[in-house]
């Protein structure tokens, strides 16, 4: 309960911030208020018309007109309130727009009764003036809500990528099907109530009202599951493990009903179940998000009818349902042109006006660019806070379900599982360790951003948000069982500014908790040795928005380390020689050799190294056709020797001023090999370096694949390592794709995600789709499948390119002799 207070306070203090729920509480209150006041208004107006017709000389024709207009206004008002409430709850532009049109009509009629009716009493003026005020407020709120709905703010599902479309259709087919006499539907369990008069639930309608009440307060937490209907029972299954959660024999299902358009879940299925051991029936509510509730309801009703009457009506119902589901699957929304979701322009964290003094900014960026950068950082902060709130809410629901489950276990007299305990068990399952780590990383990111944006945000300010965030942090630590998991979260580092900001604003209790988290939280990045610094942290948000990577690369918590991850040119080459009195070079250090790359080469596995034309590298081993080299970034790998040429120090000096600068300096002692190249490589740098290599691969692959019509001037084929190789083709099966991914040493998560596809399906995915499924590793998958596709095209008869490659290889061979 304490955490719920924290969460509610966070939401209330950041009410401006974009959320996935766009319905307006203010509009809802105004609509209910106008409904009650309208009832009073129409009764009062009717009584006054009757009074004036008896006491005053009311012309008959005007009397009839006034009564008709009053009744018309009443009809308009009923429709206005109904459509407004429905449109606000369902986030429907159509219903809200219709309600606004009727607001204009009723407003005009109210002005008529205020100004133009035959006799206007003082009471008429008062009640009409109040009504006009309510209409004005409702109209303003309605237009605001309509603007939010039509702009599509925070609707990540409105823009769907091709991969998302493919995954959506595949998930739909796997979760929703009809096979012989068994049907299965993907649903979301909303809530379960016991029909008990002490709980004010005596009928199904009472249960529906309670569901609507809980939903309006944000106390509904959905749980995905599969609802399976057969000729004997209705089963609920876990989506991931297919474990049976509940089994309701048809004889225990007493009622089935749909609840449509009464909450923000437009399609809801209701089941009333009671077995022989239950004193009171349970009422279960399910949101039918992929298949309409009417389809599921028709299926269950036909199964109940056949079980009760012994008829065989269900096969025909299943046939009709199957056709409806097939049509729905084929009409899933096609992919949008846009590839990136952008969060709302206005976040819950507001920005102050940025001062118009560019000279104050250390990075000398213009005011416009500064404002854009701050806006992006505020959006990142908002997305991080959204994800933290969602995780904390889920964690709290799991805790509540676990407590209910323990209470039931204490009161249970036998080992048989009670009704609805399967769903409680599923709800009580805590989040995975990866989800805990993700939330802790976003908490650290939020601390960094709050410290950086402390001068630019308000309502609430950065210090207040810091205090609010320690509530979720404490609950996450309690949910994980101990601080050990939080202590292991190093990435992202905290900036020195963030650590100082925290220490300057935390309460003693919060400071004790902060110190408990260890060096990963209390020690800024600048205090970490370079080899222990964590790799670049790029968050992944639930709404699908991908922030610009450049913002993180240049952020203080990624750049404060005294030694950056990449090796500078001075470190790479070192003080290779001493300077004579006239400034000339006297020689090269013994045992150090360098090569220049003649042709760009793309790495095909983790043992090889991608290189660019004219790049300079150090030779480590040169015993065979594949030389082991090290580049300026410290990466080591194999490169074919026929793409290289040895260079002298004079050649190195003339290649590029960038390289020659490393030789111009004082005559300090030369850096040893261990200093410049043999620095320990932390395992944490692997992903970052792999990302760097992927970027090089992508650039090279674009050059290769874009030159089909105009072959490059230098393109050749090099011999690959001898050994078994697994080829990927368009007709490869899912097992072949899995084997190929494993051979390329991709992570298990990537293999699991992509191993279900055929070769043709894998080749059809673009880079953005692969990144959406596999995360940062998607770029490397794209590089590898592009290479495979290019090899397939060459092997299928690109003779002209083959001839060019042979000539180039012969030219290189003759030059080497």
TrEMBL record:
A GO cellular-component term linked to this record:
cilium
CDD domains per the record? PTB_EPS8, SAM_EPS8-like
**Could you tell me the membrane topology recorded for this protein?**
Multi-pass membrane protein
Tell me which UniProt keywords the record has, alphabetically.
Answer: Cell projection, Coiled coil, Cytoplasm, Membrane, Phosphoprotein, SH3 domain, Transmembrane, Transmembrane helix
Which InterPro entries does the UniProt record give? Answer: EPS8-like, EPS8_2nd, EPS8_PTB, PH-like_dom_sf, PTB, PTB/PI_dom, SAM/pointed_sf, SAM_3
The record, for SUPFAM superfamilies, names:
PH domain-like, SH3-domain
Instruction: Kindly give the Gene3D superfamilies that the UniProt entry links to this protein.
Output: Pleckstrin-homology domain (PH domain)/Phosphotyrosine-binding domain (PTB), SH3 Domains, Transcription Factor, Ets-1
The molecular function GO annotations come to: actin binding
- Annotated membrane-spanning segments are 21-51, 63-83, 95-119, 125-149
Annotated compartments: Cell projection, Cilium; Cytoplasm; Membrane
An example of a Gene Ontology BP annotation on this entry?
A: regulation of Rho protein signal transduction
Family statement drawn from the similarity comment of this UniProt entry: Belongs to the EPS8 family.
**The protein, known as:** SH3 domain-containing protein
Q: Which organism is it from?
A: Hemibagrus wyckioides
């Amino acid at each position: 309960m304490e955490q719920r207070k924290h969460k509610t306070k966070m939401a209330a203090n950041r009410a401006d911030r974009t959320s996935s729920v766009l319905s307006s509480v203010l509009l809802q209150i105004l609509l209910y208020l106008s409904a009650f006041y309208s009832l009073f208004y129409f009764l009062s107006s009717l009584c006054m018309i009757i009074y004036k017709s008896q006491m005053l000389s009311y012309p008959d024709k005007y009397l009839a007109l006034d009564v008709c207009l009053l009744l018309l206004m009443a009809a308009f008002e009923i429709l206005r309130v109904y459509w407004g409430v429905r449109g606000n709850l369902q986030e429907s532009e159509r219903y809200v727009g219709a309600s606004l049109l009727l607001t204009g009509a009723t407003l005009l009629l109210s002005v008529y009764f205020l100004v133009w009716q035959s006799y206007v009493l003082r009471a008429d003026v008062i009640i009409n003036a109040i009504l006009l005020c309510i209409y004005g407020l409702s109209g303003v709120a309605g237009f605001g809500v309509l603007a939010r709905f039509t702009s599509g703010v925070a609707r990540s599902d409105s823009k769907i990528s091709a991969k998302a479309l493919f995954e959506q259709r595949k998930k739909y087919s796997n979760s929703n099907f009809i096979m012989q006499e068994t049907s299965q539907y993907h649903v979301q369990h909303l809530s379960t109530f016991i029909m008990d008069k002490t709980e004010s639930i005596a009928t199904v309608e009472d249960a529906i009202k309670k569901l609507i009440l809980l939903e309006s307060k944000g106390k509904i937490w959905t749980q995905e599951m599969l609802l399976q209907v057969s000729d004997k029972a209705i089963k609920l299954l876990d989506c991931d493990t297919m474990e049976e959660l509940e089994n309701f024999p048809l004889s225990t299902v007493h009622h089935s009903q749909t609840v449509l358009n009464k909450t923000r879940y437009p399609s809801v299925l209701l089941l009333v179940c009671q077995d022989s051991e239950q004193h009171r029936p349970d009422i279960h509510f399910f949101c039918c998000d992929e298949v309409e509730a009417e389809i599921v309801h028709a299926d269950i009703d036909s199964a109940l009818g056949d079980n009760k009457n012994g008829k065989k009506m269900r096969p025909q119902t299943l046939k009709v349902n199957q056709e409806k589901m097939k049509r729905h699957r084929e009409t899933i929304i096609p992919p949008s042109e846009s590839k990136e979701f952008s969060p709302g322009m206005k976040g819950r964290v507001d920005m102050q006006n940025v001062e118009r003094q560019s000279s104050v900014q250390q990075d000398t960026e213009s005011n416009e660019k500064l404002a854009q950068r701050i806006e992006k950082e505020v959006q990142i902060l908002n997305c991080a806070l959204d994800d933290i709130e969602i995780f904390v809410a889920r964690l709290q629901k799991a805790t509540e379900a676990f407590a209910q489950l323990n209470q039931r276990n204490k009161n249970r007299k036998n080992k048989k599982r009670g009704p609805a305990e399967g769903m409680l068990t599923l709800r009580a399952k805590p989040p995975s360790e990866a989800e805990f780590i993700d939330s802790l990383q976003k908490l650290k990111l939020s601390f960094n951003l709050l410290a950086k944006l402390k001068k630019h945000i308000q309502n609430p300010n950065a210090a207040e948000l810091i205090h609010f965030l320690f509530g979720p942090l404490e609950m996450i630590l309690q949910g994980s069982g101990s601080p050990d998991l939080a202590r292991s979260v190093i990435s992202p580092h905290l900036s020195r500014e963030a650590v100082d900001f925290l220490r300057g604003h935390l309460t003693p209790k919060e400071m004790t908790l902060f110190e408990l988290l260890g060096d990963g939280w209390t020690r800024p990045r600048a205090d970490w040795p370079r080899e222990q610094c964590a790799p670049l942290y790029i968050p992944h948000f639930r709404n699908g928005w991908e922030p610009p990577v450049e913002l993180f690369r240049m952020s203080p918590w990624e750049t404060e380390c005294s030694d950056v991850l990449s090796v500078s040119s001075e470190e790479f080459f070192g003080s290779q020689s001493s300077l004579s009195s006239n400034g000339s070079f006297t020689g090269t250090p013994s045992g150090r050799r360098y090569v220049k790359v003649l042709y760009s080469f793309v790495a095909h596995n983790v043992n090889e190294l991608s290189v660019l034309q004219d790049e300079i590298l150090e030779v480590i081993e040169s015993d065979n056709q594949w030389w082991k080299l090290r580049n300026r970034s410290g990466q080591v790998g194999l490169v074919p020797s026929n793409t290289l040429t040895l260079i002298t120090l004079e050649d190195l000096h003339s290649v590029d001023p960038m390289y020659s600068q490393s030789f111009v300096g004082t005559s300090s002692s030369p850096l040893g090999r261990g200093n410049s190249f043999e620095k320990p490589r932390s395992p944490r740098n692997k992903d970052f370096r792999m990302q760097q290599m992927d970027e090089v691969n992508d650039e090279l692959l674009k050059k290769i694949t874009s030159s089909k019509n105009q072959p490059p001037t230098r393109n050749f084929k090099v011999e690959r390592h001898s050994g078994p190789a697994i080829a990927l083709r368009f007709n490869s099966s899912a097992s072949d794709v899995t084997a190929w991914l494993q051979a390329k040493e991709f992570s298990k998560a990537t293999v699991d995600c992509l191993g279900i596809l055929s070769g043709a399906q894998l080749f059809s995915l673009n880079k953005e789709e692969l990144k959406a499924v596999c995360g940062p590793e998607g770029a490397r998958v794209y590089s590898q499948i592009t290479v495979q596709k290019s090899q397939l095209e060459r092997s299928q008869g690109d003779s002209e390119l083959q001839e060019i490659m042979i000539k180039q290889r012969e030219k290189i061979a003759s030059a080497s002799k």
